[in-house]
């Protein structure tokens, strides 16, 4: 049994619906289908979810925006009519929206969750109707019926452990099960949306609950690439990657879907396959617990901007027991989370994401460190980029660092930071933002020479 | 005015005394002379200081070891007679020793300090007598008279700030001033020895107090080398090195004298020159505040063994605010000081010196981290060596890391840790102890190709 999830662009129009149905029906194993809300049909189009958020805000501001309401309904109407489905469906959707509004209009957060999630919910109903219209056995299963039991905090649903047993019972259901992504139900009976990962997390949870043989995640790219196509032209496709590699890469802005969404399947060791709704014949990328290394030490390169470094100097710092702890306590007081703390003998640096140092926090933190730790000098270095070189084969290989450092030297990037020693599967380099594209391209050429064949 | 310090081997015998006198008299600027206790005259010889410690222990155990007492007196007697000095001097020394013993025999720690320091004290008296016998104006100045005022904790003297003004007054004294190293006097009138650096720290303090133009430190090597001769055959000599470079190198077992001994001259920016008593014509090594880089990015390579790494894994660690602080708090509780804490996304390592994890501490720390921080996995990696590559020119240079990593790859060393990002003048690599010699030699060959000329 496979769980299949379709992203927003895969279910944005009637035309896409047809592709999706073909995909579902092409494999009897595809039993549970998770759908997102209708996404963009073209550049500049609005996602249904964004329209629904607009709608909720208008209501919370005291006046329902009928124009936006109409736009929302149009999205479904277009699909329903083009697929010649029973037009009464649109009435059901309209009725449900009005029901949610009257139900929650007094509660800003609950209303937002309810309307946001309706994008997926109604799309699941339409998809079910379409599959039925094609003469197949299919049923809409609400997250409540499916057993997706979550915590009750609006916009921050966490799945509850007992949910998985409930979900397992779906195995006995006949036909194709269509489940809306992005939300669950709390014991209090509330609709609660997930904080991250949207429909991906639902798919992952259902796959874990059903103990699926594979979790297929259909999106609009042929595969996961070894480096972002925004950084390198036509980068190599990845046929197989481990959860760990995926997660390390996801850390630095490299993400087909949010890495935390993988946790449920990750814990059960269920393989994930990323595929393209528009090119289902493409093999896609498998995300697995373990993979054969095939001599490939580095599998991917990711990078992220907007880091900064607090550089602290104090003579005999390394003989001062408790210095590091006191420094981190100040950061904790200020609610600042740091990424790395490279330390020398008389100096220590704190690498963190710059957006945390706003509204006078920077001045306050520098001041506190200067005074409370009596440091000789403290300065802040801005506009740093972190580059992550990732691969399960790195731990044992000799010369990986040399190759990377060599490539960075060729890119004329001044290495501000090197972090290796903790993670077994990654190495991190800090460089100036202005040199990051150059650096990533040189690293790519070093680890993925064009002469080599693709990894498979 | 220069301050000249002579190490134990430089004042171990009459023959060495002659060299020392020649050196002092060769330069009128050499005004203040700091002497150590007579050191080893040949391999397997005993240092006077060690004899004196033995003597103190015998007394503390209730019975003065006359044989050891005799050995101590013989050391001075040999020098006095061979230099044809007034034989009554030995009586003075004997008398002083007996005086100290009766004075402190009730107080174990004070007695140890008093006897230990008498090695330098008596040697200063003999040196003064010798200079006088050669017809030069010279006087013995006790640390009390010199104004070396220190804190009162036995064996852990810390210089007091007001000492420097007192010492400055020595500028007005006529002739050569001979001052014993290694100890000072507390306001309570006690003899207190320095915890580290022995006579070097005294020399450094006197040089700072007198605001000397140079602090000459005479020992038995021609110069400081860019790498330990124990690791590399005939390594290159260093003509000039900065305090910072010296300190970074000293951290990993690379040390002509204890780096903290330099602090007083360091703060005044007084240059230090390391010279060889047995080859005074050799230029030696200057330790300065600033030096011209002359295109040399790396100036030295040091290494030290016996490190270990605690490797901790916990899923989503990097989103757990306060994790690092709580981890360091546990180490602090246990009185463990760490060197570095490289961190990944779901993992963090603590690099520390292994000797700290004895007497069940290792088990307790691992247990506490496992339980109190609820980590997924923790393991300890032993027998790690740290290699420090140092040079003021490194910060700005591109490709330094590449060269180092390349050299380590050639040495077939698996790099366990790379630490760069905090110190501007060093880069640190962690490798297995078994590969450290190979690694250091490859690094040496990379940064100091034999074709190049010496650094000067």
Automatic annotation (TrEMBL), chains A, B:
Does the keyword field hold GTP-binding? no
Residues in ACT domain copies: 389-456
Q: What is its EC number?
A: 2.7.2.4
What is one GO cellular-component annotation here? cytosol
One Gene Ontology term of the biological-process aspect is:
diaminopimelate biosynthetic process
Q: Where does substrate bind?
A: 49, 120
Pathway-wise, it operates in: Amino-acid biosynthesis; L-methionine biosynthesis via de novo pathway; L-homoserine from L-aspartate: step 1/3; Amino-acid biosynthesis; L-threonine biosynthesis; L-threonine from L-aspartate: step 1/5; Amino-acid biosynthesis; L-lysine biosynthesis via DAP pathway; (S)-tetrahydrodipicolinate from L-aspartate: step 1/4
Write the protein's name: Aspartokinase
Q: What is the lineage of its organism?
A: Bacteria, Bacillati, Bacillota, Bacilli, Bacillales
